[in-house]
Specification:
- The complex is a heterodimer.
- Chain A is globular.
- Chain A has helices at about 10-35, 40, 75-110, 110-125, 130-140, 145-170, 175-180, 185-225, 235-240, 250-280.
- By secondary structure, chain A is mainly alpha-helical.
- Chain A is built from 10 helices and no strands.
- Chain A has a single domain, classed as MetI-like (MetI-like fold).
- Chain B folds into 2 domains: about 15-75, no CATH class; about 90-314, MetI-like fold, CATH 1.10.3720.
- Chain B is built from 14 helices and no strands.
- In chain B, helix 5 (about 90-125) crosses helix 13 (about 275-305) and helix 6 (about 130-145) crosses helix 8.
- The longest helix of chain B is centred in the middle third of the chain and has 36 residues, at about 90-125.
- Chain B is flat and about 90 Å long.
- Chain B starts with a helix and ends in a 5-residue tail after the last helix.
- Classes of the chains: A mainly alpha, B mainly alpha.
- The interface between A and B is large, with 46 and 56 residues.
Chain lengths: ~290, ~325
């Protein structure tokens, strides 16, 4: 590619554009989270109330997304499901980010035996391909949404530990750390006040980009019957239950499916935008 | 090179111990007792003495570290016990189902290569032009679709609406493999198209490309003879590394399409609490994954002239 000289004006336009994108995404996601948080207030019908008389109605005026085989309103169930799916995914991402970052900072800062042992442990978790270990953990712990979260947390924290560790290694010998030490700062203070702010960018970018993936994997485990169990409204298990009616009543599968898709799209767009802001060198277009 | 291989093989040992130990611990934390499951499956109610006898026969009365050593010995000799449900040896059952999963993995990798390499290169060459945006748009969509949704959409469209392809099973030969392959390849291609693009772009920004341009060498020639040649090795490595994770990622797709491989075997085993099968699945998948990655890594080191030739200096 020919090297382009980017003028300051162009840079500013790009920055403004990214800012606008970020604000729009945050508003959309804020609305989504609000709807999820107040799901029971927002839903037009009771998502758990069965009405066999109006089972499997096509999407129409009364029920915008139709009804399932028990006559439950699909729209209400999709809204209720957003609560289950999104909040467990967010909780999961918080857990793995915090655990991974703490482990990574300690490993990177202290090095030595502690580092070697913890990194070997993370190697072992990384040695299991993708979902295999999660499926086994969820299976052995006998299903349930919280167990699915534990299962995915087990295999996902090492990624953050590795990232935080490598980032710490690049900053720990910087002059300002030495200066802080000379000024008498304690280790914990150095980690929190000097190291964490410097490595936070890369970790936040990875964490936000992970939300979408985690939503899909949690829904995947529920789809296999290893996560949320009926009658809980959860997108993955709703799709799994509707599978046999794909031909006659596709809406029972399509409604939660598109709900997952749109949510993941929004979170992935947010991830890309956050990366443009915090870590422009690695942005998608360059 | 030999030294490197030796070092990598040595590093493998703690990983293997870790994998088996972790699996062993996992299986022992399960809330249900193996004896209870066996009792349920035989239908009858056992006396305490019978239970004790069964426990002793399985070695479950010994302390945990001893149990682990015994169990590890069994695993290494290919004896992984019998399925609680069918009573068949687990190892044989697993090996019987493995070819179907390997077959599906190979077709998916091939399709992924066919999609992601040309589109990734095209996207890089046309950086920030319409075609690049289009390709990136589709790879973004593909990245945001969970594979079970893709599978159901494909079934809805190609099997139920158009009636071209079978909904499930593997009885119709080549026709049955199309949809599961497509499902797996869509997700993977979306990911790898981006990575191929990034790799090629990185190579194109190197100084020697600028040098070649300055000497007036045609853009196409630089692309085919320098850039692609240099980036192909990392691209192929990237794809080879995905084989392992793909082998383990087929469980959902296999159980949707009723594809009779190890993934479906494991999911079914979880639903029936058939622990020996789950155990075999976890260990073997991890083992295959680790070995495929190791082999890829060694071959990469062997093929990369920068590393191979630089060896004498180390």
């Amino acid at each position: 590619m020919t090297e382009k000289t980017i003028t300051i004006r162009e840079q500013k336009v790009h920055k403004d554009y990214t800012k606008v994108k970020l604000i729009i995404l945050l508003i959309l996601l804020g609305l989504l989270l609000l709807a999820a948080a107040f799901a029971s207030k927002v839903s037009p019908f009771d998502p758990y109330e069965q009405d066999l008389g109006s089972a499997l109605q096509e999407p129409g005026d009364a029920h915008i997304f139709g009804t399932d085989r028990y006559g439950r309103d699909m729209l209400s169930r999709v809204i209720m499901g957003s609560q289950t799916t999104i909040f467990s995914a967010l909780l999961l991402v918080c857990i793995i980010t915090v655990v991974g970052t703490v482990v990574g900072i300690f490993c990177g800062y202290y090095g030595g035996k502690l580092d070697a042992v913890l990194m070997r442990i993370s190697d072992i978790f990384l040695a299991f391909p993708g979902m295999v270990f999660a499926i086994a953990v969820a299976g052995v712990l006998s299903g349930g949404l919280s167990n699915a979260v534990v299962a995915l947390a087990c295999i996902s924290w090492p990624k953050f530990a590795r990232l935080a560790r490598s980032q710490v290694m690049t900053v720990k010998d910087a002059p300002y750390i030495a200066a802080a030490k000379l000024a008498g700062s304690g280790t914990v203070k150095i980690m929190i006040k000097h190291i964490l702010p410097n490595i936070a960018g890369a970790i936040i970018v990875t964490a936000v980009l992970d939300i979408g993936t985690m939503i899909m994997e949690l829904a995947g485990l529920s789809f296999l019957g290893l996560g949320a169990t009926p009658p809980t409204a959860e997108w993955g298990s709703m799709m799994s239950n509707g599978r046999s009616m794909l031909q006659t009543c596709p809406w029972v599968v399509l409604a939660p499916g598109f709900a997952i898709f749109i949510t993941v799209v929004l979170f992935n767009l947010l991830g890309d935008t956050v990366r443009d802001v915090l870590d422009p060198r690695n942005s998608a277009s360059h | 090179m030999k030294k490197y291989i030796g070092k990598r093989l040595l590093q493998l040992i703690p990983i293997l111990i870790g994998i088996t130990l972790l699996t062993f611990i996992l299986m022992n934390t399960s809330s249900t007792d193996a004896i209870d499951i066996m009792e349920q499956n035989t239908g009858g109610s056992w006396t305490e003495a019978q239970k004790e006898a069964a426990r002793a026969a399985l070695g479950l009365d010994k302390p945990l570290p001893i149990q682990y050593i015994n169990w590890l010995g069994d695993v290494l000799t290919g004896d992984m016990g019998e399925s609680y449900i069918s009573g068949q040896p687990v190892f044989l059952t697993f090996m019987e189902k493995l070819p179907a999963t390997v077959y599906l993995t190979i077709t998916s990798i091939l399709l992924t290569i066919l999609i992601s390499i040309p589109f990734g290169i095209l996207s890089a060459v046309r950086q920030n032009k319409f075609l690049d945006y289009l390709i990136r748009f589709f790879s973004f969509i593909g990245n945001s679709l969970p594979n079970f949704f893709v599978a159901l959409l494909l079934i809805l469209f190609f099997s139920l609406k158009l009636g071209w392809l079978p909904v499930m099973g593997s009885s119709e030969g080549f026709k049955s493999v199309i949809l599961p392959t497509l499902t797996l390849a869509i997700a993977m291609s979306s990911k790898y198209t981006r990575q191929v693009r990034a790799t090629v772009l990185e190579e194109m920004n190197k100084d020697y490309v600028l040098g070649a341009r300055a000497r007036g060498i045609r853009e196409n020639r630089i692309l085919y003879f320098n850039v692609l040649k240099a980036s192909m090795l990392s691209i192929v490595t990237l794809l080879a590394l995905s084989i392992g994770s793909l082998l383990g990622g087929t469980a959902i797709v296999e159980s949707i399409f009723m594809w009779d491989g190890v993934g479906k075997l494991a999911v079914d085993a979880i639903l029936t609490r058939d622990y020996p099968i789950i155990q075999a699945y976890v260990i073997w998948m991890a083992l295959i994954y680790v070995l495929v990655n190791l082999a890829t890594d060694i071959i990469y080191h062997y093929l990369d002239p920068r590393i191979r030739l630089g060896e004498g200096m180390k």
